[in-house]
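Hypothesis: this fold can be encoded by more than one sequence.
Test: take the structure tokens below, design a sequence, compare later.
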């Protein structure tokens, strides 16, 4: 995640289903309409490929990390300026999902400075 700034406010990350409606909600779904978070969206090819079994989970992870690595610095700045965020997607809680890939990458990159708290209902 070469574009991720090292100075930030973000302290806590949660994940949730798309229905979650809190003020810290970040919609990173393939169908998402918020232009602020669009750079985090997977492609339809990725989503349908993993659902149909034509894209392996390993390939999906690599494809998604490629997307994450291209997220503009301004988008990272906006995300990281929030004290806590909740990443939402349509996938069930324990499903293989880009929401979890992104959470892991942020926590690894900002090791010790950001904590994954868990699932919000």
């Amino acid at each position: 995640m070469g574009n991720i700034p090292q100075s930030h406010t973000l302290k806590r990350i949660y994940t949730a289903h798309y229905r979650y409606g809190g003020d810290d909600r970040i919609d990173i779904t393939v169908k998402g309409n918020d232009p602020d978070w669009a750079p985090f969206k997977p492609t339809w090819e990725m989503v349908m490929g993993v659902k149909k079994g034509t894209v392996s989970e390993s390939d999906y992870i690599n494809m998604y990390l490629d997307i994450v690595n291209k997220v503009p610095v301004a988008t990272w700045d906006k995300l990281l300026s929030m004290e806590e965020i909740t990443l939402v997607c349509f996938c069930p809680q324990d499903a293989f999902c880009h929401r979890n890939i992104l959470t892991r990458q942020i926590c690894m990159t900002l090791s010790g400075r950001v904590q994954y708290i868990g699932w919000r209902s």
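The chain has four helices and four strands. The chain has a mean pLDDT of 92.
Hypothesis status: open.
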